[in-house]
Amino acid sequence: MSNKEVQDKETKITLTKELILAYDLNQPVQTLELITATRQFLETHFKGKDKNGGIKKPLTYTQLRNVLLEVKKHPDNIATVIPTLAYMEAKLEDWNQKDLVRFIRDLAESAVIQRKEGIFLKYMDMLVAFHRYYSSQKIRS
After folding, report:
1. How far are the Cα atoms of 2, 33, 41, 80 from residue 83, in angstroms, in the given order?
2. Residues 38-50: what's their mean pLDDT?
3. Alpha carbon distance 130, 126 (integer Å)
4. What is the model's pTM?
């Protein structure tokens, strides 16, 4: 069975803040579920049409990497990154890009409230890694 056939048979898993923040490193099945949800989320970020029927403009790898670097500057207080993310979101013109930054900002806020900053940091590493993969694959339709 090819990789494409395996992907087509996977059930759709919605990526939510709750799914991410409930993540437990000691649960391999949960890890695979989070990986699948992240992959599916990024596939929709990179391909398809935007709200106006045009081609989606994904967030660049450099933009997302800059978010990660900012987060890693403040691992003990990721709340300090939330205003930076809001500013970045406001500067972006494409709704697809804004949606991804808004998702990260909301996730950061939830992580701070739930005191799960460590999970947020690990997830951001995963998100950047998969984003890099998809940006290099240029899977746009």
Report:
1. 44, 30, 24, 7
2. 83
3. 6
4. 0.82
